[in-house]
Design goal:
Order of helices and strands of chain A: HHHHHHEEEEEEEHEEHHHH
Number of strands of chain B: 8
Distance between the termini of chain B: 41 Å
Strand content of chain A: 5-15%
Number of domains of chain B: 3
Helix content of chain A: 40-55%
Radius of gyration of chain B: 21 Å
Distance between the termini of chain A: 14 Å
Shape of chain B: globular
Structural class of chain A: alpha+beta
CATH architecture of the largest domain in chain A: Orthogonal Bundle
Number of helices of chain B: 11
CATH topology of the largest domain in chain A: Butyryl-Coa Dehydrogenase, subunit A, domain 1
Strand order of the largest sheet of chain A: 1-3-4-7
Number of domains of chain A: 2
Largest sheet of chain B: 4 strands, mixed
Largest sheet of chain A: 4 strands, mixed
Oligomer: heterodimer
Chain lengths: ~350, ~375
């Protein structure tokens, strides 16, 4: 049992944080949010040059040959700086559907992807910033070019939305059981990736909250010395730390294809998105009127946290699904009672 | 990162499972925290120690396993999973022992540590008083120096295990004129001494897990002071740090038992559990998060050798979780929940103390605010 990152993984985390903090300051993100394009197109090549797009691409195709665990570190850091651009769309959402023949283009930063969602399966995050979209059609997976679309007003101006108005024929990626398997894999990765982004958001916002209550004075004392102000931040800290543990668990499960990957991702998602929304709300509150202004970066983080929660789906629904699978397991264990416990069970996780 | 057992851990777990199934008798299962059968528990704890399953985090020179935190975690998990009682000397192993190791003389170490491990000595904690709960420095139990002894007078309260304890870690005032925090002395007191009286406190459960302890002219040898006379505050802080840190896996093990039972309850009546599915999953999730966080903080403990304040986070979240789980279980029983089922009824009421004992939630939030988030002090 070792629940720590390796020195290489910690280095990746530090490298990502220092680059993104310098490159995407809240001022830069604010001006991109108000720009026509909505993101810094040239940043994609910078990110590719750092090797961050080919993390899980095999070495023979120009990648680093690593796993989702390393991508998880990046997803958290990209969430932390509110990166405007299709990193979540390409790496968190579309990645399993990208054909092997195009992985070199992913690693090299030459092509970007997103996925379509919604009742008509035509609503696409970052549609204006990508080249191709993964679409589910009649229980098959297709890749269609990102052309023929209209812009929609997203609640988060750092993550634009578009609607495919006509779906070009495109390329069929998978059918039958293969498509089902791929869709299941994408669903699990999506839950984990959105959870990791949420932890990044929550952590950054919590730090702003802590800094503010340490320095802001009222009645002659820093407001952080009042328990009514301090304790909600403690509750956020607890929520974020617990969610973080679940996120790393889910990331690890996915990276080793553990049978618990699905329950871990569902659990991490439900906890992390709630932690992010709660933290944004509490930190806006402790900032008083300033937290409610357009000038403060807080509203963008808050909107991103809500975007993630609406896009990913209600935490309560994830929990209900999780409960059904846990109860089914309890039923089957009840049936097996009296049989000797498996001795090769290994591992202290459920 | 590797969340599965290593080959070594897996072998340890396998050996432990075999040992438990060979040694766990039906009368021991489900005995839990209600100590009706002290001798049974003492023998079980002695057997655990003999088999090498007690004090795994203790240094080898004191008869422990040499700081094997992951093995300690496995023991707590497997005992909880098998519905087997934990070692009865929880306060000795988790609090008195580590404090004696940190501040004790060679004589104190050799006298007590081996006997704590094999449950020959059961310990209780004499910290809280009627006038000193969260504010520990306000204790009034007096220890007056009379030559080679201290004469102890006063009253302690909320002492778990005191009715079965052989020894007590006692925080006293040795110098009432000293400035706050400077006049305290930490004593090791033989509970069988003349003048010690234990009165069980009946709780809202109807049971008596806690006690009041009255000290009337109790003579304690001066050599039983732990640490310097007047330095009792620092010694007590060591105890409290260990209390919350070592508690982590024991707490999650205990909660695991409740969550497993909750799932079985839901599995037994799918229709009744339908409206509560999200809540059930939320509690299961919280349990996994607590376990994982305890593992994550092990890395910290292995690095520095001292538990960090993360233990406060786990205790805080655990206590509220256990309160919700036990209430949820009662809810799942429908109108039948008005009947005392002898398990959930007790556990639900007992859980109300979880946010009060071992540091109230309010104090723990202050600790996290000040020591983890570095917010300005509230007092």
């Amino acid at each position: 049992m070792d629940f720590t990152f390796s020195p290489e993984q910690r280095e990746l985390q530090e490298q990502a944080r220092s680059f993104l903090e310098r490159r995407f300051t809240p001022q830069v993100v604010a001006s991109l949010a108000d720009s026509d394009q909505g993101w810094a197109r040239e940043s994609w090549q910078e990110i590719a040059n750092l090797g961050w797009l080919g993390v899980s691409v095999p070495e023979r195709l120009g990648g680093a040959g690593l796993t989702f665990l390393e991508e998880a570190i990046l997803l958290e850091e990209f969430g932390r700086c509110l990166y405007p651009g299709p990193f979540q769309a390409s790496i968190g959402l579309a990645r399993p559907a990208i054909p092997e023949g195009q992985l070199g283009q992913l690693a090299g930063g030459h092509r970007r992807w997103s996925v379509a969602v919604g009742a008509a399966c035509n609503l696409v995050p970052d549609l204006g910033a990508v080249d191709a979209v993964v679409v589910e059609r009649n229980e098959e997976l297709w890749m269609v070019p990102a052309s023929g679309w209209t812009s929609e007003r997203s609640i988060d101006s750092t993550r634009r939305m578009g609607r495919l108005s006509e779906v070009a024929a495109g390329e069929r990626l998978a059918t039958g059981p293969q498509a089902a398997q791929l869709m299941a894999q994408m669903r699990i990765r999506k839950a984990a990736a959105l959870a990791l982004e949420s932890v990044g958001i929550a952590q950054r916002v919590l730090e702003w909250g802590i800094d503010h209550v340490r320095t802001r004075e009222q009645f002659g004392k820093p407001i952080g010395s009042y328990q009514a102000v301090a304790h909600p931040l403690v509750d956020s800290f607890v929520e974020v730390e617990l969610a973080r543990s679940l996120c790393y668990w889910a990331a690890w499960c996915i990276s080793v294809e553990h049978r618990q990957a699905e329950v871990a991702a569902l659990a991490a998602y439900a906890s992390a998105v709630e932690a992010a929304v709660h933290t944004c709300e509490r930190v806006i509150q402790v900032h008083g009127g300033m937290g409610f202004t357009w000038e403060s970066p807080l509203h963008r983080y808050y909107k991103r946290s809500l975007w993630v929660q609406y896009f990913g789906g209600a935490p309560a629904l994830h929990r209900r699904e999780l409960a059904r699978s846990l109860i089914a397991e309890a039923v089957s264990q009840g049936r097996d009672r009296g049989r000797p416990a498996a001795t090769d069970q290994g591992g202290s996780l459920p | 990162m590797e969340l599965r057992d290593t080959a070594e851990e897996s072998a340890f777990r396998g050996g432990l499972r075999a040992w438990i199934s060979a040694n766990l008798t039906p009368e021991l299962t489900g005995l839990g925290t209600r100590h009706e059968s002290l001798e049974l528990l003492r023998q079980w704890s002695r057997d655990l120690a003999k088999a090498g399953y007690a004090g795994l985090t203790w240094p080898q020179e004191y008869g422990g396993g040499g700081g094997k935190h992951s093995e300690e975690a496995i023991v707590l998990e497997e005992l909880a999973g098998a519905d087997a009682p934990q070692h009865v000397g929880a306060i000795g192993l988790g609090m008195a022992g580590p404090t004696i190791m940190g501040h004790g003389t060679d004589q104190q170490k050799s006298q007590h540590l081996p006997r704590i491990l094999d449950a020959r000595e059961i310990w209780c904690q004499g910290f809280s008083e009627p006038g000193a709960g969260s504010d520990l420095a306000a204790v009034r139990t007096r220890a007056e120096r009379r030559g080679d002894t201290f004469l102890v007078n006063g009253q302690k309260v909320w002492s778990s295990y005191a009715h079965i304890a052989d020894w007590c870690i006692l925080v006293t005032v040795s110098d009432p004129d000293a400035p706050r925090y400077r006049g305290l002395t930490y004593l090791l007191v033989d509970m069988h001494s003349k003048g010690v009286e234990v009165r069980p406190l009946r709780q809202i459960t109807g049971d008596a897990d806690f006690n009041e302890i009255f000290f009337t002219d109790v003579e304690v040898p001066a050599s039983n002071a732990l640490g310097e006379v007047g330095a009792g505050w620092q010694v007590a802080m060591t105890t409290l740090l260990h209390e919350r840190a070592t508690l982590g896996f024991a707490l999650t093990g205990f909660l695991d038992g409740h969550v497993q039972r909750l799932l079985r309850l839901a599995a037994a009546d799918l229709k009744a559990s339908e409206p509560w599915l999200a809540e059930i999953a939320a509690e299961w999730t919280q349990l996994q998060a607590l376990k994982l966080t305890a593992y994550r903080s092990l890395g910290q403990l292995d690095l520095t050798g001292m538990p960090g304040p993360e233990g406060s986070v786990i205790k805080l979240a655990w206590s509220e979780s256990n309160q919700r789980v036990t209430k949820l279980a009662r809810q799942l029983l429908g109108p039948g929940a008005v009947l005392d089922d002898d398990f959930w009824q007790y556990q639900q009421l007992r859980s109300r103390a979880n946010t009060i004992e071992a540091g109230t939630s309010e104090i723990l939030r202050n600790i996290v605010a000040e020591r983890v988030l570095n917010l300005p002090r509230s007092r």
